[in-house]
Amino acid sequence: EVQVVESGGGLVQPGGSLRLSCAASGFTFSSYAMTWVRQAPGKGLEWVSGISESGGSTFYADSVKGRFTISRDNSKNTLYLQMNSLRAEDTAVYYCARPRAGGGGYEDIDYWGQGTLVSVSS
Amino acid sequence: QSVLTQPPSASGTPGQRVTISCSGSSSNIGSNYVYWYQQLPGTAPKLLIYRNNQRPSGVPDRFSGSKSGTSASLAISGLRSEDEADYYCASWDGSLSAVVFGGGTQLAVL
Predict the structure, then answer these.
(1) Nearest CA to A78 among A5, A1, A2?
(2) Do the bridges between strand A78-83 and strand A68-73 make them parallel or antiparallel, or are there none, so unpaired?
(3) CB count, 10 Å around CB of A30?
(4) Facing residue for A44 by CB, picked from B35, B44, B101
(5) What's the rounded mean pLDDT across residues A95-115?
(6) What pLDDT score does A103 carry?
(7) pLDDT band for position B1 (cuts 50, 70, 90)
């Protein structure tokens, strides 16, 4: 069974840092691109970042570019999102997600985690 | 505001057919596939339509997608109470090199 499980969320002060992790199982992690999508409380979905199978290509939303870094460790079947210089507007549930098999793009997601809440507040 | 434009709300009665629109531009919908997601309250989104009009296995054929130019639509026929959810369109934007989502449409089944 395909599973992606996020961890690392919590309360952090503005300007602070946090690293999210996503543990993947039930599929060959190194064969799939991966992505992060967030959802602020009561708001819509916002794509955050994507990373290729090898980690050699990364993409970011303009809203997080220069502050967030996506990475992966294929030996540990784990995806990461390093978040620096956090702002109140980064408060959201962060979903780890896997695109569909067969070359699905970062927008073509068939498996989602349950999400981890990041709250940025003083 | 979102790069893709959706109506904030839609409604219908059981058995009716409802459509939700998604408007974009040449750099996203006009040159890339459109995807639709359903999000029930308190849950993660679920892929409903991929590559404009394809349904993943398990998605009822009451759900259908279409695309024309820089716009796309999701149609739900034979509306049921369990269809009450938020619906999002998404596409890749070549100018931004990023995924863009619509703002979401909250569907009410009256």
Answers:
(1) A5
(2) antiparallel
(3) 14
(4) B101
(5) 90
(6) 67
(7) confident
